[in-house]
Please model this.
Amino acid sequence: MRTATALLAVLTFAFLAACQGAGNDASATSTTGTETPEGALSGATSTGGSGGTGTPTPAPEGPKIDSVYSDLEPDKCETIESEMDGYYSKQKCPGAFGYHLEVVESDIRQTVNVVDASGKKHELNLGGVVSRAFSYVGNKAEWRFRETGGQREPFALIIRFNATIDPNTGKEASYLTVSKITEERICVTDIVKPIPNANVEARKLAEKAADKPCLGSK
Model:
């Protein structure tokens, strides 16, 4: 009887040991199957650089480039000089960024002076640079500026200049003049002839105007 009982005890112990070993193997297999493979998210983490979310960090934005406009219409300006019954006149017109403009007319020909906050005058000499024919400027001046950190800095001025090309018929040509604005000089650097999308071309030229020389008289 004791032998049978002992044999039964041995068989029971062996059976329990076998069951425990099988359970351990299943546990190990389950754990291995749920682990994330090494490096599966490393690409997203390193690319995003934002805590492993995979979202790229936005690149810093460059300065904003835009325009403001000021009036050159006679009724928006103040006449400060007039001689010979209107043969010669000078009007002070509003500007921007601390500058104001002077529209000077003599013998039915107009030009513009740019005056800075200190009172220094920069003569654009549109008659000499563009055309000596009868002429007049447009009603608006366009000031191109860059804005960085809330600070606006003008870098160019665009003014329309209309000149007679045939005095017999009165036919005119309308040009856009581009002037650079730097600490040293304000002067005409480019002339855009009457072409489609002239405004777009003038703005492109304005962005490079600071590094260009002043145009001389023709």
